Amino acid sequence: PVHRAEEVQQQRSKLPIFGEEQAVIEAVRENPVVIVAGETGSGKTTQVPQFLYEAGYALKGMIGVTEPRRVAAISMSQRVAYEMSLSKDIVSYQIRYDGNVTPDTKIKFMTDGVLLKEIQKDFLLKSYSVIILDEAHERSVFTDVLIGLLSRILPIRAKRGPPLKLLIMSATLRIEDFVENTRLFRSPPPVITVDSRQFPVTVHFNKQTPSDYVEEAFRKVCKIHRRLPEGGILIFLTGQQEVNHLCRLLKRTFPFHATLDSEDNVDSQLDKTIKAVKHKRHKVPLVHLEDFPLVPLDEQTGDEDLGLGDDELLDDDMDSFLSNCQSGLKEQPIHVLPLYSILPSHRQAEVFKDPPEGSRLCVVATNVAETSLTIPHIKYVVDCGKQKMRVYDQVTGVSTFHVDWTSQASANQRAGRAGRVGPGHCYRLYSSAVFKDEMQIYSEAEIQRKPIDDLLLQMKALNIRKVCNFPFPSPPKQENIEAAERRLILLGALEDNGKGDFASGITGLGMTMASLPVSPRFGKMLSLSHQQGLLPLAVWLVAAMTVPELLLERPLTTGNAQTSAGPDKDDRKRLQALRCTWVGQGDSLLLGDAMVLLKAVGAAEHASCSGPRSLSKFCAKYGLREKAVIEVRKLRRQLTSEINLLLPNANLPLDPFLQPPTPDQMRLLRQLLLSGLVDQVAKKMGPGPEREKKQLKRAYQMLGMEDPAWIHPSSVLFTSSPEFLIFLEAFQSNKVYLRGVVAIEPEWLPTFAPKQCNILTPL
Ligand code: ADP
Ligand code: MG
């Protein structure tokens, strides 16, 4: 029996799904696969696991729930534990490198990638009695593959052992892809549609589509706040920097304490605003050292911000800002909250709390708020209609961030957020012609847009050779499968059977790589690192390279309007100088940005031992993202224990301190990095004709590519410009930039050419 607080019981009873408990349980009892479709906020994620628990599904195995986003896995496990008055030992979560699962866990929330790894270890998922694939409409790569795999696992479990049940939960979008796909399920599974008690939302289009949607959003929010009755405002922008920028403007315009009454103060307030507006111009991309990022949705996609393609505010628009700011003094305050995926969890959780008395809630979000989290009290939605997406060139691996129109389906999801508490309004900052003519009806499934190296390796490890025959809800493009297969052969993870039939089997090295919870390249580095005593260093380095945006180019905003006004150019220079002193000269400098990462995480661990808040202070001073430092630590611990399992005599300690590498080790680390980045090599371009010399100053040629590339200015090797280098990422903005740069010696290249490893031999 489950005990719930009175208040919880009352809230539950108001959710649209509450009346469907019987229907859900009966459908699950009678069918192997059931689809539950309902609008965001109807109670699917929080209630369905509880229904199953009370129907006894946790007695003989766990109830597993997958989420494409880490944010959702963590916050939903906490919410369900709270609602059921159970501890986190019973309702737990597991994400790639963090979790609180115990032997007593009954309901386990996890990211979809985690379940895919578990299938590798236990194909029949014997510890589960039910799997719920949540947010299936998001069409994340891993969820798509899980649907395909589970469609094969269920019939086997039906014959052997207690049957496994599958629930696919989705917003009411495009469920035909699952229901009517006879390659997946021979007879179409029943669909339970939750009647959403959605209130009508009036959609208002702009007559014209402004070029600067951040400014337009600001204007719109000011208008709503001044003219319309109470109710929260939710604003959709495309990235973290835009979100922070708009938050700052709104906080200044509608502050909590109107301390400014003399004209002088008003002026200085305006000065600050102008400065804040102007310093937008100088923003330079943040450091991003993620490799092929086949990781859960919330770690990359449009949600992350490299500061590229940033909104710029034009001088002409300044007037409107000023008038807005001026008249904004002493008005009803706005409780402004940002929401994006790399925000620390405690700040993300703020959006669920009631706003302070007398203020209006205003959440400025990226598309995290589109479907996975339901924010209470929202009555007005302001939608810029765009999203930031990472676009890959499948051949060259060069990626770019594009800010582009969302799909009509996403726009409607966003609008729907306004109709949860009562009739609402959605202000679209674009014209209806844009909606009709420029937006696709649905967004493309993630699997069709991204490199699938990681996925392909996982599938080969499951002995699925002909990946093109796999029952994907929507299959990846053949050319993407082929490109990924070629890269994996080059890394030595797949056999080169010489037939070019794209049905290669996995190698021993590939199996080791696949068993590690990092991308194939980093998996290879770890697999080779047991030699020469490199393993402990490699674990630190791979952990630091895997977690995105560990090094910031300037400190994250504190969320405090008063302290965030200063321009950040000096901060950036200071940080850059600091990092250069970290690497010094010689071997250490040649290890380049990898050395910076090692120093950063090593020093952060030392710092965190010297008292409360010492880590925060350290991170603020050295421009590290604190949440990332903690993630690196967790990932390091997880990698350590996985390696100890894999290599029983490795005896890798969970040592919190990093022994700095010796010059010899630095050299070996460079080789180790090269082993995982064999195809990401660049050579400095020789002197050409006089005319080109200037243009191509310090330009590099990437292996197999014609266009020149440049070391990104944030790299510590920017000025020394070595002859040969490897890079973690090639990124296109106004030109192609290489990030995460390490110098290599040309004589190493033949050694590391496809698969041969004379210096280092695989495990
Ligand atoms: P769905 O999965 O159908 O989108 P959810 O089960 O996520 O719906 O949400 C149901 C309700 O629970 C929503 O009204 C949401 O606001 C509320 N809710 C979810 N998480 C929390 C939380 N951490 N704190 C307070 N309320 C929450
Ligand atoms: Mg949900």
UniProtKB/TrEMBL annotation:
<keyword id="KW-0378">Hydrolase</keyword>
<feature type="domain" description="Helicase ATP-binding">
    <location>
        <begin position="25"/>
        <end position="191"/>
    </location>
</feature>
<feature type="domain" description="Helicase C-terminal">
    <location>
        <begin position="269"/>
        <end position="463"/>
    </location>
</feature>
<keyword id="KW-0347">Helicase</keyword>
<dbReference type="GO" id="GO:0003724">
    <property type="term" value="F:RNA helicase activity"/>
</dbReference>
<dbReference type="GO" id="GO:0005524">
    <property type="term" value="F:ATP binding"/>
</dbReference>
<dbReference type="GO" id="GO:0005730">
    <property type="term" value="C:nucleolus"/>
</dbReference>
<keyword id="KW-0547">Nucleotide-binding</keyword>
<dbReference type="GO" id="GO:0000462">
    <property type="term" value="P:maturation of SSU-rRNA from tricistronic rRNA transcript (SSU-rRNA, 5.8S rRNA, LSU-rRNA)"/>
</dbReference>
<dbReference type="GO" id="GO:0003723">
    <property type="term" value="F:RNA binding"/>
</dbReference>
<keyword id="KW-0067">ATP-binding</keyword>
<comment type="similarity">
    <text>Belongs to the DEAD box helicase family. DEAH subfamily.</text>
</comment>
<protein>
    <recommendedName>
        <fullName>RNA helicase</fullName>
        <ecNumber>3.6.4.13</ecNumber>
    </recommendedName>
</protein>
<dbReference type="GO" id="GO:0016787">
    <property type="term" value="F:hydrolase activity"/>
</dbReference>
